[in-house]
Write a structure and sequence with these properties.
55% of the residues lie in helices and 0% in strands. It is mainly α.
């Protein structure tokens, strides 16, 4: 049973007719109030009235003065299969984006590797020495020998430039 377009007092009378003294007054009040809008239930909850007819009159007055809050139900325009298709398409789009990013990274990495190899092949034999990263490294070359090779005028020890050639000091 719904309130619909009826007044709360009309709903109460219908419920009383259907109950015909088979349920207690308290049960009937609870069932009736459960069919009322929350705003009306709130007002009835704070009243000290116990007379059911007076409660119905109060509920009628609240319904008359209260502005009805329109309720709008959401309507789904797509069928469930369309929703699944949309989810799959969105997921595939994300996967495609990630794949493109990976391919781009891979291409950049591959190009960097080829540039390094190309440079290392094009070095002359006098440039073939590699500079160690720290002075403790046995292949470490000071800045001057690493940069200027045989033309270096200075040397910082412990440089591992060709031992048989004495570096000239400036």
């Amino acid at each position: 049973m719904e309130l619909g377009d009826q007044k709360p007092s009309q709903l109460l009378r219908k419920m009383q007719d259907l109950a015909r003294n088979r349920v207690t007054k308290e049960t009937l009040v609870v069932m009736w109030q459960n069919h009322l809008p929350p705003s009306v239930r709130g007002v009835l909850a704070v009243t000290n009235e116990n007379d059911l007819e007076k409660l119905a009159t109060i509920a009628d007055k609240v319904m008359e003065t209260a502005t009805p809050i329109p309720s709008i139900a959401a309507v789904e325009g797509k069928s469930p299969t369309q929703n699944k298709d949309d989810l799959v398409i969105a997921h595939l789009d994300k996967i495609s984006e990630r794949l493109e990013k990976l391919e781009s990274r891979s291409r950049k990495h591959w190009q960097k590797g080829n540039r390094r190899r190309y440079r290392s092949r094009s070095r002359s034999s006098s440039e073939s020495r590699t500079r160690g990263k720290t002075p403790e490294d046995p292949n470490w070359l000071c800045y001057y020998h690493y940069r200027y090779k045989n033309r270096a005028n200075k040397c910082v020890q412990p440089c591992n430039w060709k031992k048989d050639v004495k570096p000239s000091e400036n």
